[in-house]
């Protein structure tokens, strides 16, 4: 990365002039020196006449001692990632550590979710500010938002990333580089003092990400726009809201899905402390959404039943807020999200979901028909065991698989099962009762509706309201 001193100089001076960082404080040098946040830690302290407190690399890696370390060293300003912040706040609240000297916490590196725990922590410390910083490595910090100190802003939602700092211009554009209206999602492009000169010895990548500014060239000669690849939108109060990465936009069965929108909805649940949503390949070969969550669940209720009850509650919560195709097929509860050495969420370390966690208490088939239906479900869903009360869609089923399910059932039992019946009763026990009812009452099969579908074909099923 070809970055200049102008970037950090402009950042620190702008923050000092705005009152964001305008006083000498004891700042902990917590980030690794190879991480760009360390530059801000160092020069923020020095530029304001503050004190930079150094600790060993060993202490930086040992999060367990961080609360005690902050207290013993009387740290006043702290730069950390959102994931570390959530962990730290939980520890401080549980251990009842006050950290009275602490005046500023600056978060950067990942999306900041404003949980009830953060609301409580900063609500009890009105003299401590929580700042949300946004900026790729290619631009360093470009927007800031004061998240704490205003209850309305911390009402269980994701923090905005704020407004551009001094000497930075932010553009929200569509794929054709046209401006989008307030409230409409677009890609964030940046110009100004923070923009790097490109990637060292990578001219093709530089040309792809750093493009000529078609709108203006400011007085200092900043003629380049950096394409961040981040999806944002302007809020009515002219703050920017971060919605996720363009490369995190996934397409599943014809639907374009913003993973950030699902994460924001889950984060608004009172018991959710941290969340990441990913698209993964299921055992059936299809893509499915998986939600990884850290919750406030009682540690004494770490039983399988409590686990499944929590998942059921979260699923029901989402189903009331999002369309069915955006509700994850699997929910994975973790004690904490895995982190990289720089404190960011390590998505590669997130585990595969366990299908058993998505199932309610197993109820085995009681009849030959139920056994046959369970076998069909196991084949289509790629799972080892299905009970007669398991929900087809909650085990990873979707509308296209439901088409195959309907075809197999109709052919095997020579009946005419409809989509409405499958979607209305997506459990083996209920479908078995429908089939038995048809047989007992002698309802004949409509051969025109027994579809023998080729599983390699694609079908337009978006008309179905799931």
Spell out the key features of this protein.
5-stranded antiparallel beta sheet, Rossmann fold, disordered C terminus, 14 helices, 3 domains, alpha+beta, 21% strand, 31% helix, 19 strands, 5-stranded mixed beta sheet
Q: What can you see in these coordinates?
A:
The chain has helices at 5-18, 37-47, 57-61, 66-72, 82-95, 116-123, 203-209, 259-267, 304-319, 355-358, 368-381, 399-413, 419-424, 428-440; strands spanning 26-29, 51-54, 77-80, 104-107, 113-114, 129-134, 143-146, 157-158, 163-164, 168-173, 186-192, 210-212, 224-234, 240-245, 249-252, 255-258, 272-281, 287-295, 330-333. Strand 13 (224-234) and strand 14 form a beta hairpin. The longest helix has 16 residues, at 304-319. Residues 444-466 have low confidence and may be disordered. The protein folds into three domains: 5-247, ANL, N-terminal domain (Rossmann fold); 253-358, ANL, C-terminal domain (GMP Synthetase, Chain A, domain 3, 2-Layer Sandwich), CATH 3.30.300.30; 368-449, Non-ribosomal Peptide Synthetase Peptidyl Carrier Protein, Chain A (Orthogonal Bundle). With 466 residues, it is an alpha+beta fold.
């Amino acid at each position: 990365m070809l970055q200049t001193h102008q970037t950090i100089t402009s950042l620190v001076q702008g923050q000092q002039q705005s009152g964001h960082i305008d006083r000498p404080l004891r700042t902990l040098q917590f980030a690794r020196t190879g991480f760009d946040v360390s530059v801000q830690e160092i020069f923020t302290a020095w530029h304001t006449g503050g004190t930079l407190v150094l600790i060993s690399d060993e202490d930086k890696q040992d999060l367990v001692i961080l609360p005690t370390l902050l207290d013993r060293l009387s740290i006043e300003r702290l730069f950390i990632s959102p994931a570390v912040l959530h962990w730290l706040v939980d520890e401080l609240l549980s251990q009842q550590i006050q950290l009275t000297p602490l005046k500023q916490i600056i978060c950067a590196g990942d999306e900041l979710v404003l949980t009830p725990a953060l609301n409580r922590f900063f609500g009890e410390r009105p003299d401590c500010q929580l700042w949300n910083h946004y900026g790729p490595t290619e631009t360093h910090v470009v927007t800031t938002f004061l998240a704490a100190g205003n209850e309305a802003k911390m009402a269980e939602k994701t923090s905005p990333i704020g407004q551009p700092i001094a000497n930075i211009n932010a553009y929200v554009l569509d794929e054709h580089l046209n401006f989008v209206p307030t409230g409409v999602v677009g890609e964030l492009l940046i110009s100004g003092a923070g923009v790097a000169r490109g990637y060292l010895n990578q001219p093709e990548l530089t040309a792809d990400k750093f493009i000529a500014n078609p709108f203006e060239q400011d007085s200092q000669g900043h003629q380049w726009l950096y394409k961040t690849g981040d999806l944002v939108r302007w809020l009515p109060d002219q703050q920017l809201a971060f919605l996720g990465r363009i490369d995190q936009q996934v397409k599943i069965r014809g639907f374009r899905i913003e993973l950030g929108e699902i994460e924001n909805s889950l984060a608004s649940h009172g018991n959710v402390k941290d969340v990441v949503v990913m698209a993964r390949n299921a055992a059936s070969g299809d893509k499915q959404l998986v939600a990884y969550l850290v919750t406030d669940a009682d540690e004494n209720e770490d039983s399988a039943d409590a686990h499944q009850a929590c998942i059921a509650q979260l699923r029901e919560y989402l189903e009331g807020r999002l369309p069915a195709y955006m509700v994850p097929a699997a929910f994975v509860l973790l004690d904490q999200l895995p982190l990289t050495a720089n404190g960011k969420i390590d998505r590669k370390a997130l585990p595969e979901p366990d299908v058993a966690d998505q199932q309610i208490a197993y109820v085995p088939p009681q009849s030959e028909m139920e056994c046959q239906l369970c076998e069909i479900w196991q084949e289509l869903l790629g799972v080892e065991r299905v009970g007669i009360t398991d929900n087809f869609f909650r085990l990873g089923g979707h509308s296209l698989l439901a088409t195959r399910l309907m075809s197999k059932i109709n052919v095997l039992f020579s009946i005419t099962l409809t989509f409405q019946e499958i979607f209305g009763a997506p459990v083996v026990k209920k479908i078995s009762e429908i089939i038995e009812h048809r047989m007992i009452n002698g309802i004949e099969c409509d051969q025109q509706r027994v579809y023998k579908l080729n599983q390699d074909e694609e079908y337009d099923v978006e008309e179905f309201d799931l």
